[in-house]
Amino acid sequence: MDGHDGKSGATEHYTPAPAGKDSPNSTEVRPVHGAPEVTGINEDAAAVTTIEEVEASKKGWFAYFKTRDFYIVLLLGQVLALSVTSTNTFSSLLVAQNTSIPAFQTFFVYVLLNIIYTSFTLYRYGFKRYGRLLLKDGWKYIILSFLDVQGNYFTVLAYRYTTILSAQLINFFAIVTVVIVSFAFLHVRYHITQVAGILICIGGVGILIGSDHITGATSSDGISKGNQVKGDLFALLGAACYGGSNVVEEFLVSKRPLYEVVGQIGFWGMIWNGAQAGIFDKKQFQTATWNAKVGGYLTGYTLILTMFYSLTPIMFRLASAAFFNISLLTGNFWGVCIGVKVFGLHIHWMYPIAFVCIIGGLLVYFVGKKVLGEATKPWLGKNQERGVTGVGTARRRVVRGDTVV
Predict the structure, then answer these.
(1) How far apart are CA 399 and CA 395, in angstroms?
(2) How many other C-beta atoms can be found within 10 angstroms of the C-beta atom of residue 32?
(3) Nearest one of 144, 110, 139 to 245, comparing CA atoms
(4) What are 59-79's pLDDT values in tens digits?
């Protein structure tokens, strides 16, 4: 996953860490086959002063705005928002074809993630070490994948009963979940400007809701038919599960190699999702419409969501689960832009105002942040000594200088 750094002139390698350290190979040294993400490397002594030096390289309330990472995070957030909107669109198109299979629809995503990332993890670790990973840390990934599967299931299920716009608007509840869980369990403390940024973004969503109320876009006359209250509750439950899984994934991906975390999501998610599809989707599977269009929609859904899962951990490292979720709020605007062509929707004049409001909130969120932004995680120690040295981490900046990958 992490590319070779031309500065070092050599391939990275794992070194054994003291017992109790959060390191993927605290008991042995193995030859490597590529450039991995590294934990347990002997950089801690330098990190004590280097973290402070990096943070002090640019000063002021807008220090983070002067870094390359800020623009990467901002752009990455919009790529992810557009990805979510695209998968939501495919879900609505499948419902329009009388194909509502919420669990089975996501099954191939987990299969593809498992094929790509678990295969690479086995290549890096070997079967013996991979087995120890499952025995020691498997329970963490079981919880993560369960929350993720339920988030996907209930979000997709919501499209059987409600409209794409209504379901997307409710997704902002994930922000509430992320902030509460991060504050309570990860000891994340939010700066006043971060709180203001979140509130401004939610205000932008309020403008969208007002616009949709005026135009009637949130009525049940759209693609998805049925009990809209039930659909909204499913969307709410899906958002809560997503929020919980985001926090857990941010924690794990800060301490473990990216390929390990995503591979475990695919491995356990495939099991959870397969069992759920066999139980709940059996009847819908038999009555669903199967044609070339449905096949195309499922393929697009699978490929885009796989890309989404691959990029999300980088966002969690560079920023946070909170910023990730407020970035996704612009998905409502992108959803209407897509809906203009796909569903014949119309852009109300309040939508561009709402979009600018949300983007403004994203900017305010980082006012007052230092050079490393949210890449420094409070649970990794003052100098991030308990974290992995991988793509997007603050520790990688300390070890390798001004580099992201």
Answers:
(1) 6
(2) 13
(3) 144
(4) 788 889 989 999 999 999 999
